[in-house]
Amino acid sequence: MQQVLNDLRWLGIDWDEGPEVGGPNGPYLQSQRLDIYRSYAERLVREGKAYYCFDTVEELTVLRDKAEAAKQGFAYTRPAVLPDEKDVARARAEGRPVAIRFAVNAPQGFVVDDLIRGKVRFGPAEVGDFIIIKSDGFPTYHFAVVIDDELMKVTHVIRGQEHLMNTPCHQALQDALGFRRPAYAHMSVTVSDSGGKLSKRERPVTLRKAIEKNAAADRAALAAAGGISAENLDGFLRGESMPDMPAVDAMARQLGVELPEINIVDFFRSGYIPETMVNFLGFLGFNPGGEREILRREELVSVFDIHRLTKANSLFDRKKLSSFNTEHIKMCTPETLLAHFKMFLAQTGSPLQKADDAMLSRMLHCCLGARTLAEIERKCRFVSADDDAIEFDPSAVEKVLRKDGGAATLPLVARRLGELKEVTAEAIEQVLRGLAEEKQVGLGKVAQPLRVAITGTTISPPIFDAVDMLGMDRTLKRIALAVRRFGTETNG
RNA sequence: GCCCCUAUCGUCUAGAGGCCUAGGACGCCGGGUUCUCAUCCCGGUAACAGGAGUUCGAAUCUCCUUGGGGGUACCA
To answer: What's the Å distance between residue A110 CA and nucleotide B59 C1'?
Structure first.
């Protein structure tokens, strides 16, 4: 619940009334509305439109199985004589569950007039008497929404297709209570590229597969990372239990596997910006008809039309999502992007948090075209690393510094850079290009060894900016360290 | 089993009987730009699920089949 609220806020979606902001139609939490539901339920019972029932879950299961065996749909059979107060008292004394069931009265069936799908018809036998108050005293979803929609003056109910079949129940209830009927729109479901529907279960399942594949993984360390016991981990691996979200995340990190993003926060942590998510999610199951797809929130709002929601399920395409992110990162104002980046760095605990705004802005500016903020962070992390603790990518060192003899050119590069009076990206560019020309080689022959020396990898922002961001002192220090470490072996 | 929804390139989709030789975007493939990774610029690949109707004419309407999804709860 709290997470949903946080997610909405991150997306920049706010609400006029509801949890946290209050409003004229509260309270907004179902747990605070129990008395309301109960009084309406009692009214229905008094009017003979609902009745108490005492079946156990087991008894109901038997009935359902019987119906299926007979190749029939199941509908609860209403007793010929509705139970009275004495029956309730007796059931309570016997320790039987006491629930309240709504007596559906619709001999001619139901028509749901859906904004997306048109009129959908259901036969009278399709909707049996259903529970409105559970034996624990809480309302079922069906009952609570109907009451809430009426009391909160809801005009449009837009929800997942999985609720289409529930709508006759809701309408029957509205009729019995004398409520008005909101307009309904049942949206298509978003399915995952890994198969079924996009579900929270995908993350733990992916993790389990990763653990199974990686036989060498240290199970004890894994359990410790997730803060769960070895038995719990075993249970999880056997498919008997699911650890909670933080545990799953922690174990994935320990194992070094990437889990598919499902929840909105997952996308935040992966470096997507809210503008992207609003645009992309808005286009899943909706299309304004034009040829433009990259839209700002205000544009999306103005172009939205409930009648243009699509009917068929849509698949969540992460490739397209990341391309949308590239576009939105490019469209952001520098200030907005900086704010997003800082939130991202804080969330992921990046060492780049130490950098000041000017430096971070520069990083963002240099990395326009990146797919995600995570990519930018990775590319620029070298700035915050300790000069003598750079992690060298072995294959980069092997190829650039050793095999191509790059280490041998570093001392000269260092000398020329050291001679610079005024250090700017432009000046650095001049030095390096001049050097390449002098040596009759491509710029790459000079830039790549330098890049590996100061970042440890072959991936970084443009080399001139990279050197400038790092500062000349640290650049020279790193070159010296790299020469000492990788240079002599090449020469001797 | 029963019930409901749904069906255009690999994916998201445009398309409401002739503007369709089916458009766009992402992806993919090829080429160019480039100091790396990206970006960027050119070009290309690729779809109306199948079968019957209706109509002068069908991606568009009807029916059937098949595929996909959902529901079938004292979960939401």
So the answer is: 32
**Residue A398: other Cβ atoms inside 10 A:** 14
How large a percentage of chain A has pLDDT more than 70? 98
Contacts of residue A481, Cβ cutoff 8 Å, sequence gap at least 6:
A387, A388, A390, A453
Closest nucleotide to A135 by C1' from CA: B74
Alpha helices, DSSP H, located in A397-442: 410-418, 425-438
The most distant pair of C-alpha atoms in chain A lies apart, rounded to whole Å, by: 104
Residue A214, classed as helix, strand or coil, is: coil
Over residues A89-138, the pLDDT tens digits come to 999 999 999 999 999 998 889 999 999 999 999 988 889 999 999 999 99
Residue A5 tokens, joined: 């609220």
The gap between A123 CA and B3 C1' (Å) is 9
Q: How far is the CA of A363 from the C1' of B68 (A)?
A: 45
pLDDT of A146 reads 97
Predicted TM-score (pTM) of this structure: 0.90
A window 462-481: Cβ near strand B (< 7 A) = 462-464
Q: Is there contact between A121 and strand B, defined as CB under 7 Å from any strand atom?
A: yes
A163-210 per-position pLDDT tens digit: 999 999 999 999 999 999 999 999 998 887 765 677 777 888 888 888
Nearest residue to B39 via alpha carbon and C1': A369
